[in-house]
Design goal:
The complex is a heterodimer.
Chain A (H helix, E strand, L loop, with lengths): L1 H28 L15 E7 L7 H8 L13 E8 L5 E4 L11 E4 L4 H34 L3
Antiparallel strand pairs in A: 1-2, 3-4
Chain B lengths: L5 H25 L9 E3 L2 H7 L4 H5 L5 E3 L14 H34 L2
Antiparallel strand pairs in B: 1-2
Helix pairs in contact in B: 1-4
Classes of the chains: A alpha+beta, B mainly alpha.
Chain lengths: ~150, ~120
């Protein structure tokens, strides 16, 4: 059933965008963390997403495939999936602050490679994408209730 | 009026096409930030319009399918999804679905009236 697959696809989008927001928040929270759990300065994290592979394998889509009715979801995959969270390997910032407890012998502190402006832009981008997925889900729901309306 | 005539089958095909199109749009929106993603779309209207005069078998054989839109421009970050365009397409597709299902409901109501008056 196409509309349920549409709702699933939007749901996967919601999951991915929320995770992006979580990771962005973590980056912002650690923008000044000079010593993480491993003793190293914090490195900003990034979410890698990819298109969810494989055609839909729900009962309904397989059945409609057998019946040869085109709208069973042929060629449509299942939204988006998170491939992983990777650390940004760009250079860490170095600032001169001799009074800092983590300063080296020359007085330099290695700071995380978090740029707050980048993070804020990412946050806006994922929040807007989240809204778009909600709207898509709402549209599919309206369409489905129109179908149910035929029976009344 | 035949119970399941060309118009009825055509309307059913149109609803199937629209619902598959919504699936493709949802897929596109979910992948708005996916590098290398090509947007997909479903074009069933032209096939349905061409089949309409060919009788119910022609109409029944219209099979909506998704296709990758190769004309779309890739952004710097690699995804080809334009969120505004998807929103517009989605609104249009939703209204189209509503229109077709309203026509279908009217036809069902006419049938109900006919049955009730027997």
């Amino acid at each position: 059933m196409g509309l349920f697959d549409a709702i699933d696809a939007s749901g996967s989008g919601l999951t991915a965008e929320r995770l992006r927001m979580d990771v962005t928040s973590e980056n912002l929270a650690n923008a000044e963390t000079t010593k993480g759990a491993d003793g190293q300065p914090y490195r900003r994290k990034e979410v890698v997403v990819q298109e969810a592979g494989g055609a839909a394998t729900t009962f309904a889509s397989v059945l409609s495939g057998i019946q040869g009715r085109g709208a069973g979801g042929a060629g449509v995959t299942n939204g988006v999936k998170v491939a992983g969270i990777v650390e940004d390997q760009t250079a860490l910032k170095r600032i001169y602050d001799p009074g800092h407890p983590d300063a080296d012998k020359n007085g330099y502190v290695t700071m995380p490679n978090v740029n707050t402006v980048t993070e804020m832009t990412d946050l806006i981008s994922s929040s807007r994408a989240y809204e778009a997925n909600v709207t898509a889900m709402q549209t599919a729901k309206t369409m489905f209730s129109k179908t149910l309306d035929l029976l009344r | 009026m035949d119970l399941f005539d060309t118009t009825q089958i055509g309307l059913e095909r149109a609803l199937s096409g629209s619902s598959l199109r919504q699936q493709a749009i949802a897929q596109n929106i979910a992948n708005v930030n996916t590098p290398g993603y090509r947007r997909q779309d479903v074009d069933f209207q032209s096939a349905l319009a061409a089949a309409w005069d060919g009788g119910e078998h022609k109409v029944e054989s219209v099979a909506p399918a998704t296709e990758a839109d190769m004309s779309s421009v890739m952004r710097v970050d690699g995804s080809s999804v334009d969120i505004d365009q998807e929103a517009a397409t989605q609104a249009q597709n939703g209204l189209q679905y509503e229109a077709v299902s309203s026509v279908m409901k009217t036809r069902v109501n006419i049938l109900k009236t006919a049955i009730g008056s027997m």
